Amino acid sequence: QEAQLRQSQKMDAIGKLTGGIAHDFNNMLAVVLGGLELSRRGLDAGAQRSEVLRHIDSAHEGATRAAALTRRLLAFARETAVDPVTIDAATLFADMADLLGRTLGDGVTMTFEDASRGWTAAADLVQLENGLVNLAVNARDAMDGRGTLTLRAEAITLAAADAGALTCGDYLAIAVQDSGGGMTADVLERVFEPFFTTKPVGKGTGLGLSQVFSFARQFDGDVRIRSAPGAGTVVTILLPRAAAAPAAPPAPEVVATPAGA
Ligand code: ADP
After folding, report:
1. What residue stretches are annotated with the Histidine kinase domain (predicted)?
2. Which of 4, 28, 125, 251 is deepest in the core (most CB within 10 A)?
């Protein structure tokens, strides 16, 4: 009896994982297909070489991310643990600005606010990045391609009163706020259910937020959502603050410029 229950839980977990990966892979393929389509249209219309190259680069990046995802899947199949890395908001935002901008499209204004005070967290970077792309896709859909998206990092200390499922203490919070249509209470109540979607067949899988949630829980964090019809949505990923790293010998300085700057 108990073995049967364990087996069914395992199948459930595998089902969720497979669906989740298919969902991420689909997001990446959309970037590849979009880049190819725009390159072809550009060539047909006699567009500037630089514009066509930009679309090719975008397709290339999508394919590279898809390859990284399948590598991670293979690593998982071999039961190699995914090593959490140190996440800091400034690096995360700089690395993701380009991809998020392309996901959102030209009609959406994107702003970054970093009030993380340099706090860091330990988590799987690939999962976090995929999660943020999922949130951006949701925001874009909620805004019909037009509006404002704010990505905000905050240093938050949770007291017992607002800790909920979490331990009291310090958290690095990454919030994605959109100016879209928001959610009714009925929808808000169900968003973390796997396969719950209000989107047309073929557009939504209902796995985006449940994936983000299981990622956050995996690293002892949480996801909180504030939303109301007409008032937009804020989805916040909370991750426990990592202890400050011991002083390392100074590394050679690398200057990172956000792409497009
Ligand atoms: P999917 O996007 O495939 O539907 P999700 O789990 O990401 O799956 O989202 C579930 C549902 O939650 C969506 O179908 C939508 O109704 C609602 N939702 C999620 N994010 C937002 C948002 N930013 N604004 C409004 N509704 C949202």
Report:
1. 20-243
2. 28
Distances (CA, A) of 3 to 8, 9, 10: 9, 10, 10
Residue 202 contacts by C-beta under 8 Å, 6 or more apart in sequence?
none
pTM: 0.73
> Which residue owns the Cα nearest ligand 1 atom 11?
197
CA of 180 to the centre of ligand 1 (A): 11
In testing the pocket of ligand 1, which one of 191, 192, 226 has its CB within 8 Å of the most ligand atoms? 191
pLDDT of res. 79 = 47
Q: What is the mean pLDDT of the chain?
A: 86
Q: Ligand 1 pocket check: which of 27, 104, 138 to mutate, most ligand atoms within 8 Å of Cβ?
A: 138
DSSP 8-state code for residue 109:
E
Strand 169-178 versus strand 120-123 pairing type: unpaired
Residue pLDDT, tens place only, 219-236: 999 999 999 999 999 999
Digit-coded pLDDT (tens) for 13-28: 666 667 777 888 889 9
User: Using a 6 Å cutoff on CB, does residue 210 contact ligand 1?
Assistant: yes
Q: For residue 233, what are its two tokens?
A: 């949505």
Per the DSSP assignment, residues forming a β-bridge with 151 are 112, 176
Q: Look at ligand 1, atom 7, and give the residue with the nearest C-alpha.
A: 208
